[in-house]
């Protein structure tokens, strides 16, 4: 075979080595991509299983969820707050931007309970509480004064409180935020941050007129979050209010 | 528990059933998506394996590919024609539009042989053939007159012919398209369509001046593809040329 022809080709041995290495690198890129996609699929499978489990459990006994306002609340909470916090991000982070899975799911979501329904279930629960003068702790413990329901976590109590807060119903906010705080204290796996509960409880307590207790709570909040600027300014405000109250009381004694 | 509260909730039993069915449908949508993605990953894994195998084989003995012009041609053909036909579409169809896998691979492809290299290897092969007056069939059979090389399929012969065709080298086009045709005849798993070979062979034969044989080949092409309009018009053209030639010959005899 002509050596002059080969000489031409042989000068590209280095070129060939580079080509073979590039080829191997390409195979590796594809494999890395596959592994990354497999991770995403694992996340989606996990979510699909969780949804399946919830669905199977509910389908076993759907009347259970309507049998009492606590479980009705939990049922609706799952499809609104929990879904947006836990399920939606996993779907978004593990599917492609142009995939139509998101659109398909949105279509089905039209049949799911809404945030309006959530407000409705919380209001129904609070009406029940008021009608029967049910103790908050008892409700949270699953005791509806004659029938039983699921127990509530700190976060689930918090959301009832937050709903009340949105309705400017500080009376119920205080009750449910306090319950959330108590449950948070004993929870091994924290379902909600204590400072977040304190933030709502403090303001609602103030709105209910109990400045001293609002100050105590604010101080507790600042122990947890010393740089919380709104809490810092609230502390000064409550202290000022209390000082003024003190002044008024002292003048009253003088009279 | 207050029945008036429950009555409100109970009217939504139908609503709840619909919600539970939507939930189950959502889990199913996610699972279908996962299955579709897994199919794509299987395709990518297959491609990655094929590239790996090719790479490993070449890395075992890289000099082999430069040792003779036939294998040099096959090496470069793999990274150009074969890659664009077999590998690129699988990558495109099985990855997302916004994935950067395509970009990463493109970067590596800069180190791979190019279509210019392909032209170079074919020209080197044809120069060898001419220099040593090597028979086309022997070359295709792996016999380079003293040394051996890989054998060539019909498609691999076709591409040598097509490269010659692009260079307007109809002399070599005829030789290699004929070889492709012969190999196509005996191939159990067809690597190239016979009518495509005939298309090139017919035109090159005509350009080499053999009108009668071009007509014979055109008729064979029309047997395979009766609606091939260019072949239909070529047939009429060749018949006209042959008739004119006949006329000229007859007048010559008269003289």
In short:
Two copies of one chain form a homodimer. The first copy, chain A, is mainly alpha-helical.
What report would you give on this structure?
2 copies of one chain form a homodimer. The first copy, chain A, has 255 residues and is mainly α. The first copy, chain A, contains 12 helices and no strands. In chain A, 36% of the residues are buried. The model of chain A has no long low-confidence stretch (mean pLDDT 91). The interface between A and B is large, with 76 and 76 residues.
Q: Helix and strand layout, with pairings?
A:
The structure is a homodimer of 255-residue chains.
Chain A: H1 3-10, H2 13-60, H3 62-67, H4 69-93, H5 101-109, H6 115-132, H7 136-140, H8 154-166, H9 170-186, H10 194-207, H11 211-224, H12 229-254
Helix pairs in contact in A: 2-4, 4-6, 8-9, 9-10, 10-11, 11-12
Oligomer: homodimer
- Continuous helix count of chain A: 12
Number of strands of chain A: 0
The proportion of strand residues of chain A reads under 5%
Gross morphology of chain A: flat
Using the CA coordinates, give the radius of gyration of chain A.
Answer: 30 Å
Distance between the termini of chain A: 124 Å
> How does the helix and strand content of chain A classify structurally?
mainly alpha
Query: Biggest sheet of chain A, open or closed, and with what strands and sense?
Result: none
Question: Helix fraction of chain A?
Answer: over 70%
Overall pLDDT metric of chain A? 91
* Largest interface, Cβ cutoff 8 Å: A-B, 76 and 76 residues
What is the succession of H and E elements of chain A?
HHHHHHHHHHHH
Which residues of chain A sit in consecutive blocks of at least 5 with pLDDT less than 50? none
């Amino acid at each position: 075979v002509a050596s002059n022809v080969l000489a031409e080709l042989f000068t590209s041995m280095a070129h060939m080595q580079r080509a073979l290495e590039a080829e191997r690198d390409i195979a590796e890129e594809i494999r890395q991509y596959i592994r990354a996609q497999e991770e995403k699929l694992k996340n989606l499978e996990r979510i699909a299983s969780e949804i399946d489990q919830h669905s199977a459990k509910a389908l076993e006994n759907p009347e259970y969820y309507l049998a009492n306002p606590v479980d009705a609340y939990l049922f609706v909470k799952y499809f609104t707050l929990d879904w947006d916090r836990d399920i939606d991000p996993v779907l978004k982070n593990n599917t492609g931007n142009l995939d139509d899975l998101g659109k398909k799911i949105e279509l089905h979501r039209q049949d799911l309970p809404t945030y309006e329904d959530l407000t409705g279930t919380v209001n129904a629960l609070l009406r029940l509480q008021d009608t029967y003068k049910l103790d908050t702790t008892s409700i949270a413990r699953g005791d509806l004064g004659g029938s039983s329901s699921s127990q509530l976590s700190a976060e689930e109590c918090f959301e009832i409180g937050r709903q009340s807060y949105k309705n400017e119903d500080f009376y119920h906010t205080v009750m449910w935020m306090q319950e959330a705080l108590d449950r948070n204290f004993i929870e091994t796996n924290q379902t909600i941050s204590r400072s977040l509960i304190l933030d709502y409880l403090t303001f609602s307590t103030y709105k209910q007129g109990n400045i001293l207790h609002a100050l105590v709570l604010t101080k507790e909040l600042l122990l947890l979050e010393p740089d919380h600027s709104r809490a810092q300014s609230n502390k000064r405000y409550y202290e000022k209010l209390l000082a003024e109250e003190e002044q008024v009381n002292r003048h009253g004694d003088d009279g």
